[in-house]
Amino acid sequence: MSIHTVDVVQFLHTCPAEPEPHPYDIRRTVIDVIDGGPCRNPVTIRCGDTVTQIRCGRHEPAKRQCGACRVIVIERTITNLHPTAGVAG
Known about the structure:
mainly beta; 58% strand
């Protein structure tokens, strides 16, 4: 299983249509990637006379992928920023 660790920064705002703060811009930074290793269940693809094998993670839905092809994303930190609308002077 591949593990991807990310940091998330969410920029929040409020508006008349939705007075609760909600994100309008989400940025993710990849911090670390741990590779799951080689595919344990490659899929055979045929195209005309050509036969090739690809990783099951490129072809199968998540629940049918082998353990090496599955991806887990860990959000290490989530930062919420609510920029001020302006400074009164």
